[in-house]
Amino acid sequence: PVLYSYFRSSCSWRVRIALALKGIPYDVVPVNLLKDGGQQFSAEFKAMNPMQQVPALKIDGINLSQSLAIIHYLEDTRPNPRLLPQDPKKRAQVRMIADHIVSGIQPLQNMSVLKQMGEKKTEWAQKCITSGFQALEQTLKHTAGRYCVGDEVSMADLCLVPQVFNAERFQVDMGPYPTITRINRALLELEAFKVSHPSRQPDTPADLRA
């Protein structure tokens, strides 16, 4: 497998965690979203992913984009350890939380949107994340055990950790979100989350390395 990734992309990080949890070795092709006007806009990468976004994954003779689609494929083809619970209710909760983050928070504060916000980009990012986290905190109070849904790591957790990282980057006050904070802390103790962290990638700038 070959993963096209950017060290600080939360969408790429989700896939890196899944690959690490499932023990799938892979090569990384860094795609710098800032250099050369954005390497994702090159003709070569556009042929790989017409949406011109990371991540993209070459695996099993196909090209895949969109982080959750990639994770679902890995789950279907390499089911151990599973990232979706077998119980239908818990499975739905995992998907609900993942979609809450992937559709309801992250796109509103990603780089392409923030470019449009100019000097107000930090204020905008804080507003979007805070609004999303207020709802997520209430949801997690009903679903969480050690992690987002019960005591097993799931697809929801793969989405949570990168989003908390974004919140911290934009200096969001995490005080009102004790459940989110507790789960995030527990997940960051796991090796798969450590090795996939933005501070430990091949394209991480020297001053941001762990």
Automatic annotation (TrEMBL):
GO MF terms held by the record: glutathione transferase activity; maleylacetoacetate isomerase activity
Principal location: cytoplasm
Domain GST N-terminal: start-end pairs: 1-82
Sorted UniProt keywords: Cytoplasm, Isomerase, Phenylalanine catabolism, Transferase, Tyrosine catabolism
Pathway(s) the chain acts in: Amino-acid degradation; L-phenylalanine degradation; acetoacetate and fumarate from L-phenylalanine: step 5/6
GO terms under cellular component: mitochondrion
GO biological process: glutathione metabolic process; L-phenylalanine catabolic process; L-tyrosine catabolic process
Subcellular compartments: Cytoplasm
Cofactor requirement: glutathione
Matches recorded under Pfam families: GST_C_3, GST_N_2
Segment forming the signal sequence: none
EC numbers: 2.5.1.18, 5.2.1.2
Keyword Isomerase: yes
Reactions that this protein is recorded to catalyse: RX + glutathione = an S-substituted glutathione + a halide anion + H(+); 4-maleylacetoacetate = 4-fumarylacetoacetate
Domain GST C-terminal: 87-206
InterPro entries assigned to the protein according to its UniProt record, in alphabetical order: Glutathione-S-Trfase_C-like, Glutathione-S-Trfase_C_sf, Glutathione_S-Trfase, Glutathione_S-Trfase_N, GST_C, GST_Zeta, GST_Zeta_C, GST_Zeta_N
SUPFAM superfamilies: GST C-terminal domain-like (SSF47616), Thioredoxin-like (SSF52833)
Source organism, top-level taxon: Eukaryota
Record family assignment: Belongs to the GST superfamily. Zeta family.
Protein name per its UniProtKB record: Maleylacetoacetate isomerase
Gene: Gstz1
